[in-house]
């Protein structure tokens, strides 16, 4: 309700909460869509794994979960880096390529895969972007 030329605190609070709730719902819907798309990718990969690492991802739920978390962190970081910052984007892409290379060196060893997936996730969570 308006009080003179000012909005009451309660009106502003309700409007802010409504806006946050709506944006939260939109983000939640987007996250759900991404998760469903990821599940479809896993179904395709698991139908005919291209290598031993893909086979291990299909056989071990904990690796799949780590893989999802890595993908989420990469999405978060890429969203945080300005599109014109080729240096940071290049560094992130290069580091992901190195991770893929090291992952192949595990040759399907579950203990090795778990260790490098956890290390990669930790690295991505600690990654600092300059905006």
Structural class: mainly alpha
Strand adjacency order, main sheet = 1-2
Sheet with the most strands, sense and barrel status: 2 strands, antiparallel
Silhouette: globular
Q: How far apart lie the N and C ends?
A: 39 Å
Residues in helices, as a percent range = over 70%
Number of domains: 2
Q: Extract low-pLDDT stretches.
A: 1-25
The number of strands is 2
What is the H/E order?
EEHHHHH
Approximately how much beta-strand content do the residues carry? under 5%
Please report the number of helical segments: 5
Topology diagram in text:
Layout: E1 2-3, E2 6-7, H1 9-47, H2 52-59, H3 61-80, H4 86-105, H5 110-126
Antiparallel strand pairs: 1-2
Describe this structure in words.
This protein has 2 domains: 1-47; 49-131. A two-stranded antiparallel ribbon has the order 1-2. The chain has 5 helices and 2 strands. 79% of the residues lie in helices and 3% in strands. Helix 2 (52-59) crosses helix 3 (61-80) and helix 3 (61-80) runs parallel beside helix 5. It has helices at 9-47, 52-59, 61-80, 86-105, 110-126, and strands spanning 2-3, 6-7. With 131 residues, it is mostly helical. It starts with a strand and ends in a 5-residue tail after the last helix.
Give short descriptive properties of this protein.
2 domains; two-stranded antiparallel ribbon; 131 residues; mainly alpha
Tell me briefly what this model is.
The protein has 131 residues and is mostly helical.
């Amino acid at each position: 309700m308006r009080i003179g030329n000012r909005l009451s605190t309660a009106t502003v609070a309700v409007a802010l909460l409504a806006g946050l709730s709506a944006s939260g719902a939109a983000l939640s819907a987007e996250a759900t869509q991404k998760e469903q798309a990821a599940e479809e990718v896993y179904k395709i990969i698991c139908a005919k794994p291209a290598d031993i690492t893909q086979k291990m991802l299909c056989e071990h739920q904990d690796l799949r979960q780590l893989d999802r978390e890595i993908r989420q962190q990469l999405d978060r970081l890429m969203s945080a880096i300005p599109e014109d910052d080729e240096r940071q984007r290049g560094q992130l892409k290069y580091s992901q390529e190195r991770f893929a290379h090291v992952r192949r060196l595990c040759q399907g060893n579950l203990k090795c895969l778990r260790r490098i997936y956890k290390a990669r996730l930790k690295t991505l969570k600690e990654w600092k972007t300059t905006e």
